[in-house]
Structure formats: C-alpha cells, structure tokens
Amino acid sequence: MTTRCTDIHDRGGQTGLTLLEVMIALAVLSAMLIMAWYTTSSSVDVKNNIETVQEREHEIRVAMNRLVKDLQSAYLSRNERTNTENRRTLFIGKSQSPVDELRFSSLGHRVLWAESNESEQTLISYSAEDDPDDGTKTNLVRRESRRLSNEQWESEPAELDILLRGVERVEFEYFDWTEDDWQDHWDSTKQDAERDRLPERVRITITIRLDNNSEFKRTTQARIHLPEVLQF
Hints:
- This protein has one domain.
- The protein is built from one helix and ten strands; from the N terminus they run αββββββββββ.
- The strands form two sheets. Strands 5-4-3-2-1-8 form a six-stranded antiparallel beta sheet, with helices on one face.
- Strand 1 and strand 2 form a beta hairpin.
C-alpha cells in the first residue's frame, strides 16, 4: 500500500515538472517570435524608407536634368527694342521663399505641330505653387510659353507643368564672372551691373523633407552655352 502511494506521488511530481517545462518552452518560443517580428518589422521599415529616398532622389534627378537643360539654352538678344517695358529676351532671378523665382528667354522650345503659331524661342519660368491635393505642400512649377512677345508674359499662351512635388526649398544662385562670386539674384533688364548679361553658371539646390521629418538636399550646376548677347 505504501509503495503504491509513493508511485502515485512520483507520477504527480513528474507531471508537474512536464507542465513547467512546457510553460518555459512557450515563453521562450514567444520571446523568439517577438524578436523575429521586431526584426522583420524593422527590416520592412528600413526597406520602405530606402525605397522612399530612392524614389524622391529619382524625382529630384529628373527635375534637375530638366532645369539644367533649360538653362543651357538661355540667351539674350539685342535685336529688339530695349526701351520697352516688357523685353522679349531677359534673365530675371529673384530670391523668394520657399522657391526662388526664375524667368528667362530660351532657344529650347520644340515645335511639334506644322504651321503652328510657335517658335523655338520661348520664355521659361519657375515658381512655387500650392499642391492641389495637399495645401500644406509646395510644388515647383515650370511654365513654358509658345513664343516670345512684348506682351505681359503671364497672359501669353503657355504650358504649365509640375516639375517637382512637395519641395521644402529651391534655391538658384548665379555666378558673376566679373565679380568672381555667386549672387542670389539677377536681372538683365535693369540699369545696373547685370544689364544685358547672363550669369556664367547657375547653381541649383533642392531640399525636400522626407516622411521621417529629415531633410534631403541635392545640388547641381548648369552652364549657359550662350553667355554673350546675340546680335545678328
């Protein structure tokens, strides 16, 4: 009788020890699952952040390529009346916030339709505009007219495109070879040192803010191919 009670007691102890081992195993497994989930979640977040940065960097690169190509074709001409209020050829850059304003005549317009009232000579401008889908964001907008004229440039027919969405800051700086220095403004129509002159180079700096609230900045330069005033 005593031996049988001892056997039962031993079996109960073995059963209790097995449940404890199961609980420990479950706790270890839970900890491992939590660590695996945390690692996977962190990897997904890093992957998404990298993809966002790469996507935005691609957008900036495309926008900068467009800016550089436009500026390379900038030009001025003396074959017009220089005493008019609205010059046909000009180069005007103003320091503004958050996007500097820039307006210049260019030879880069492509005429796509035969017998259209257009010319390869065009007026290009860059400015800021509120995002139509999110009023808290600012877009860099490009405007290209179909021809040059002595009329008010805002009223001339033109194509308007969003060059880059959600910019934090866009800066244009102009290298004056006579001063060997950069300027934050330029005006070829005023009676000062910049009259009838183009900058040798234009430095472009674009800053955006990523989803994690960090700033992302890129800078490039455009060299103007026709810095001298044309006269035929």
